[in-house]
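Entry: Non-structural maintenance of chromosomes element 1 homolog
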Amino acid sequence: MDRQLFQLLLRNGPVVTEDTITERLHLTPGEIDACLVRLNNRLNAFALRINSVIFGQDSCLGIINVKDDSASKLGTPYTPTEISYFKQILKILLLDGEDSLVDLEAEIGRQSSVNPEKLVRQLVKDKWLAEENKMIAFGQRSFLELETNLIAISEQIGGLANICCLCSALHIGCSGSDKGVKCAHCAAKMHKRCQEDYSKRFHLCPQCRRPAEWEPIIGRRRRLELEAERLKSEGLPIPADGEFSLLNLSHPLKRRRTRAERKAAMRFEGDNDSDDLYENPAERRRRVVPKVKQEDPL
């Protein structure tokens, strides 16, 4: 049984759904879990592990490498420049959940040694990324192999990667098919399907124990759209492109604004209390409290 499962993972990899295993090998979820324990005990000697994650509505399994050394890096078909570009894509997706190829290229910038469209197509083919309705999101393989890295990066940049408080699996709130919800009263976050199963039996938040009020998890781009809608509904002017854009939100990929852009922001914002939304607070402090030139005592 263990050998059949291992051969199935090798033959149908890099990702196999639990439904496929049940259909091919006629194993119950309990039998699959028992096989994984025995196989992982044997694979430890080779720095390999069979990992299991929830992706969308499916439970996925795959064989992953748990050792990060120079020998392991020789097995990748991607160049160092392509890997660096992929890391920047991951950061953007951790903030937005999903993006179009055009938006990704516009935010990262074109590099002479990388063809973004060709690279993204290959990453989708290898299941590192997924594409649905012309939107790029995380793929099954990223969930399987990069869970620890995604959570660490997300903590640094305030991203969407979280551990579901019900099933303890990775989820990225609004990335492709991986929809998530959060409690309106506390920091509890979970998969949408986990919340639906939980709500059939309980009506309190599992973390704060208050009456459950669930909100969808939204990314940076959607938050920006909602803010624009709010300004429009209140009859307030929406800043021109460049002053109210994704590039000017606070995140690690933020570019430094030019002198002309900062002057335009000052003319638009005036002394409005809400100008921190468009301008770096440090820049605002420098503008509000200008330095006084000291006179020469001589």
